[in-house]
Amino acid sequence: MTTNWTIGDHTGGNFCWIHLDGRDEESLRWIENPANELPETARFNLTAAETRPRCQPLGDGVIINLRGPRGVEESDGDTLVSIRIWAERGRVVSLTFRQLEGLPLLRERMEQGLYHDPGDLIAALSIRIAHQLDPVVADLGDQVDDCELALSGSGYVARREIARARSTAISYRRFVVPQRQALEAMAQLEYDWIEDDDRIHLREAADRFARMAEELEAVRERSALLHEQITDLRAEKIDRRSLVIAIVALIFLPLTFVTGLFGMNVDGIPFAHHPGSFWAVTGFSLFVGLGVASYFVVAKWFRS
Predict the structure, then answer these.
(1) Please, are residues 76 and 1 in contact by the beta-carbon 8 Å criterion?
(2) What percentage of the chain has pLDDT greater than the value 90?
(3) Which of 63, 158, 217, 297 has a CB 3.0–4.6 Å from the CB of 56, allowing a cystine?
(4) Residue 289 belongs to domain spanning
C-alpha cells in the first residue's frame, strides 16, 4: 500500500514533494482544503477515477499524468498504474491509487537533495519508468521471436502464447503512446523551473517511449500474422487428414458393395456352398482394393 509523505518545505521558495495515497481519506481531505492552494482543475485531476497520460499547462503550473509498472502485483486494474501530478514552482503534488514501482527510490534521492525543482523530479520519474518498461517490451518481442521459431511445433501452445503477447502489447501501447506525447509537450513548456537539462531528459524519455511504441506496434502486427499462419497450418492439417479419410473411404467403397452383395441371407447366391468361394471373394476384394489404392498413388493424391 502506498503511503503519504512530504519531503522539503514549500515556504521560503524551497522545493518540496508531497505524495498522497488516493485510498486514504485524509489525503482526499488535504486536496480539498483551500489552504493548500490547489487549483480546482488540479484537484479534479488528482482525484479522477480514470486517467490517461497527458500534459496540460494551467496558469503557473502544469498537470501531468504518467503510467508505470506496478510496485505490488494485483489481480485487478490496468497493467500500468497511474500517477497524477500537479507541478508548480517549488512544489510537486502527486497521487497514486496503487503502488507505483520506483517511487521509493525517487523518494530516497529526493531526501538526499538530488532534485532541486519540479523539472528534476518529473524528468527523473519519466526516465525511471522508461528504464523499467524497456526490458518488458523487449521480452514481448523475444516471445514473438520464439513463437516464430517454434511455428512448426505445437500450434495450440504457440497460439496461446501469441495471444497473450498481443494482448499485453495492446495494453501497454494504449498508455505508452500518449505518455510520449505528454512528455514531449512538457519539454516544450516555457516555465523557468524546467531547466535545459530537464528538457533534455524529458525528450530522452519521450524518445524511449516512442521506440517502445514502435516495438509494441511491431509485436501486435507480428502476432496477428503469426496467428493467421497458425490458423492456415491448422486448416491445412485438417484438409490433409480429411483427404486421407476420403481416400480410405473410396478404397473400401467397392469392397463394401461386394461384401454386402455376397453377404445377403437369401437363396440363389452363386457358389454359396463351393469350398473355394470364400477365398475367391477375398482375393477379388484384395485385387479391387489394391487396384483403387494404386490409382490414387499414381494420381499422387497422397501428395496433394
Answers:
(1) no
(2) 35
(3) 63
(4) 237-303
